[in-house]
Amino acid sequence: MKQKIRSFIFEEIIFIPDPDKFSDDDNLIEAGLDSMGIMRLVMFIEDRFGVTLPDAEIDPDNLHSLNALEQWILRHKK
After folding, report:
1. Residues contacting 16, CB < 8 A, separation 6+
2. Which of 6, 27, 32, 72 could form a disulfide with 62 if both were Cys (CB 3.0 to 4.6 A apart)?
3. Cα 57-63-64 angle, rounded to 5 deg
4. CA 27, CA 63: separation in Å to the nearest integer?
5. Long-range contacts of range 1-6, CB-CB < 8 Å, 24 or more positions apart?
6. CB 65 within 8 A of CB 26
7. What is the C-alpha to C-alpha distance for residues 70 and 34, in angstroms, rounded to an integer?
8. Rounded to whole angstroms, how far apart are CA atoms 59 and 3?
9. Measured on CA atoms in the order 47, 52, 39, 5, is the torsion positive or negative?
C-alpha cells in the first residue's frame, strides 16, 4: 500500500529530484504537498483502497508523512 501511495505522490503531486531519498517519515507538506494535492491524494486513496477518509480528519497529523498516511488509512480500512 505504502509503495503505491509513494508512487502516486511523486509521479503526480510532488516533484522532487530524487524521491528514493525521501524517507517514510519525511514531511510531505514541507516537500510541497499543498491543499490541491491533498484533495487529489485523498481521492486516490479512497478509490484505490476502498476506504472513506473523513473530511474532519484531513489535517497535518494524518498527512505529514507516508507512515502517518498509512496509519490513517489502516484505522479506516474495513
Report:
1. 10, 22, 31, 32
2. 72
3. 135
4. 8
5. 1/49, 1/70, 1/73, 2/66, 2/67, 2/69, 2/70, 4/48, 5/41, 5/44, 5/45, 5/66, 5/69, 5/70, 6/66
6. yes
7. 18
8. 22
9. negative
pTM recorded for the entire structure: 0.91
Report the C-alpha gap between 49 and 26 in whole angstroms.
Answer: 23
* Per-residue cell: 31: 516537500
Q: Which amino acid is at 78?
A: K
- C-alpha cell read off for 57: 480528519
